Amino acid sequence: MDPRRAGIARRLGRLVVPVECPGCGEPDVRWCEACEAPWWEAPLRCESGAPRLSALEPPLAAWSIAPLEGAVHGTVAAWKDAGRRDLAALLGPAMGRAAAALAPQLGVTAGAFAVVPCPARAAHTRRRGVDIPLVLAGAAAAGLSDAGLRALVRPVLAPGGGGARGAGDRLRWRAPAPRATRHAWRPSHAVPALLVDDVVTTGATLVRAAEALAGTPLVPVGALVLASAQGPTQGAHVRRG
Ligand SMILES: [Zn+2]
């Protein structure tokens, strides 16, 4: 946006509702340049910082864009829990760029590729007005497609048990519906899959997703999240703070 239009938008926005950067609290901006910067980093491996994930057998490679702390934490939390739905315009493209950067490392060059969101709790999606993992999966699939993979979002997992997602909860493969729906999609051969979630802390949710896919045609080859509690642990990305 050019500065003049940005100025007008800012003034109009101020008339409606006060807005501030979710990372640092700078007033009158949706987000500031400094707090946007981490989202332009290439994703780095993070599974060694997630105890549950590193214990998975076979191991699952996981990448995150940034450590879940400081401005990054504030931004993700504002999107998830403070009604800042406009942050999809920041975090969606970040996920897309990360997926495109990741594509060469997935060991897949041809054929169908699936992007599987770790399903959000229905109550969370209702409260947020947006299905965050599904949005991120869409962005990741677009990024992978830009990088030349035939990637499509496959929301094939559903919360099991009481429908909650949390400690002790399971995820399950959605049973194919009698009529063809996007959830009933079932390929006849193995398809590599990237798991997508907003954040990883212990890795338990990603482990449950990988376990739910066991025995299905979808074979997880990695996981991508916006941010990880322990931060990316490999490469040049130095943990801040
Ligand atoms: Zn800021």
TrEMBL record:
MF-aspect GO terms: glycosyltransferase activity
Keyword terms, alphabetized: Glycosyltransferase, Transferase
Superkingdom assignment: Bacteria
InterPro entries listed in its UniProt record: ComF/GntX_DNA_util-trans, PRTase-like, PRTase_dom
Entry's family note: Belongs to the ComF/GntX family.
Name under which the protein is recorded: Predicted amidophosphoribosyltransferases
Record lineage: Bacteria, Bacillati, Actinomycetota, Actinomycetes, Micrococcales
